[in-house]
Amino acid sequence: MSHVTGPSPSVTARPLTFSDAQAVFELTRDAEIADSGHAMVELEDIRGDWSRPSFDLASQSIGYFENGLLVGYGEIHRNRLEASVHPAHRGRGIGKTLFGWGLERGRDLGYARVGQTVPVTNRAALGLLKSFGCELLWTSWVLELPAGATIDDAPLPSAYRLCDFDPERDSREVYQTFEDAFNEWPNRQPQTFDDWRVHALDRSDFEPWQIIVVAQDVGGAEHIVGACKVTANDGEGWVDQIAVRREARGQGLGRALLVAAFARARMHGASASRLNTDSRTGALGLYEHVGMAVVQTYEHHSLTLT
Question: How do beta strands 236-244 and 272-278 pair?
Fold first, then answer.
């Protein structure tokens, strides 16, 4: 362990290990509750992120400890820093040291930029990022469909149908549907199939019902043109990913996927359902139009490395 430079000499630092996953989950949960009153993270999110083939936990993570307790941590991957300081230990300079570590590791990894997404309610974190010279790249929102609310469905065009997901048959095509759509966004780093599979399909809590696809009949053969991934835990549904191929948009496929996703979540015990979108997608108005409401707002600030 090495000592953290700065105002907290009793805090030591070391790379994280898989045995730290529970502590990272608990710290992140407490930070989310402090910042927004609502915890979104799950333990399987941490384990899934750390299991990606392109991610090396030993060289791309850091944990800050005091008296054996985790008080802050960071991990860096694909130009993005995921970092948090426990609410009880904020204001001690740990966050500043943590972001400095992220910039240093980003340079070592050859990244052009390093950025972090933080809730707008955490004014200290926003001020810290601005003090480093970071610029705002996008705003993101968590929206909720309240318990009991429904979205009016619209019939799909005759050439399309909603289908259940077959992992053996559909995994590559679903991944490519997500990847092609998301790569339309500026400042988005591509994701490999193996990284997506580990995070989406290899989780211990994954079940095939969580993915819904829209298929199009082309000359008697069906091709996936839209997909979404939904989960339901502790009475809350989450649409983790949703995408429709560019050539199939404007026909109600995204709306049909949303309706199906919320119905699936309710079938598995969820009352309200949530999803995340950001200003790069232009989808905020669509979600608000179907009855969802913004419940949390975040900003992604980034620094060009030289």
Answer: parallel
Which residue, 129, 62, 65, 56, is CA-closest to 101? 62
Residue 26 class from Cβ within 10 Å (0-12 exposed, 13-18 middle, 19+ buried)? middle
d(C-alpha 250, C-alpha 252), whole Å:
6
Task: Answer for the pair 132, 303: CB distance below 8 angstroms, yes or no.
Answer: yes
Distance CA 36, CA 16 (A): 26
302, β-bridge pairs: 115, 135
Mean pLDDT, rounded, for 128-143: 97
Cα–Cα distance measured from residue 138 to residue 234, given in angstroms and rounded to the nearest whole number: 30
User: 140-175: per-residue pLDDT in tens?
Assistant: 999 999 988 888 877 899 999 999 999 999 999 999
**Residue 9's Cα: distance from chain center in Å?**
33
- Per-residue pLDDT band for 109 (boundaries 50, 70, 90) equals very high
Express as a percent the part of the chain with pLDDT over 70.
97
CA distance 121 to 138: 16
Angstrom CA distances, 158 to 44, 136, 165, 251, 255, stand at: 38, 43, 20, 11, 16
CA–CA gap between residue 52 and residue 40 (Å, rounded): 20
Residue 110 reports pLDDT greater than 80: yes
